[in-house]
Amino acid sequence: MADILGTRALNRATLARQMLLAREDATVADAVERLAGMQAQEPRPPYLGLWSRLAGFRADDLRAALHDRSVVRATMMRGTLHLVSAADYAAFRAPIQPMLDSALRVLGKRAEGLDRAALVPAARELLLERPRTFNEIRALLQERFPDADDRALGYAVRMWLPLVMVPTAERWGFPRTSEFTLAEAWLGAPPDASTAAEALVLRYLAAFGPATAADAQTWSGLPALGEVLDALRPRLRVFADERGRELFDLPDAPRPDEDAPSPARFLPEFDNLVLAHADRTRIISDEHRPALTTKNLRVRATFLWDGFARGVWEIETKRKTATLRLRPFDRLPREALRALTTEGDALLRFAEPEAKEHLVTVAAEA
What local confidence, expressed as pLDDT, does residue 365 receive? Predict the structure, then answer.
């Protein structure tokens, strides 16, 4: 019979791999690899996510990694923008291509008339000339394919063609409207077409395990990963959760004691810790999970106390005063409030260094 892992045991195992039980010494590229990428729908959140995980992290560290091309921002898991190491992009872009292909279903009738055999070479030609924004790409492609929906043209190019975003000297590494270029031009070679899905699943388990097939599918967007895990079974350790579901893990991955100390930590918007499992009770209760997402599908920033998401937070800056507002899901003990206020103040000073005053406040329960 498989050993049973309870919710707290899964919580501590995941936090250890996500570098949230203690800040660790690692380069930005190594950290991003250990995290199996960082969702980066907006440019600022990965900076805050790395600040919470790395000892002595500076914003310049990530900016340097982007400019030396050891880390890239590109469309990856779930068809969303991620920061990944250059090595992981090269290795894992091919295994996720089937998911990117299927993502075009969201276009519905707007995808009618898209000709992949004609569109991909046309987009490559435009991007070989120079990096371009998607406003430029859509306009130029519309001239060549006047009967196609311009938004569908742009979306198809994002899904079908390996592209990376070009960093700039902006504070968070990218302007509001960024240029894209061909991955092979930026990294010196096209992605490796030979990497199998097994390698991607192993990287997922290293970062988020122990996990079910459904968890891996939720993180990646790929279907039928139960078959992949079955093929990997001889190389893995198999547990069960309290509901009897199989959990797969790497044999030597960290699984700390469920009572291992877990400090106050702040996660930015879109952090994969709250997105990478089908069953997210190892991080947030089902009761509070709906509070994570806004009506326009933004994933709110959360804070952790004793390892679990206990509320959301936001930063507002007015007249040189930066305020971090905590919105707990439930009443917090004084010890938690003290620890969160201290950690929040440090985060606020990192995020808004030019503010003259920094305040941390606690609102009524969210």
Answer: 60
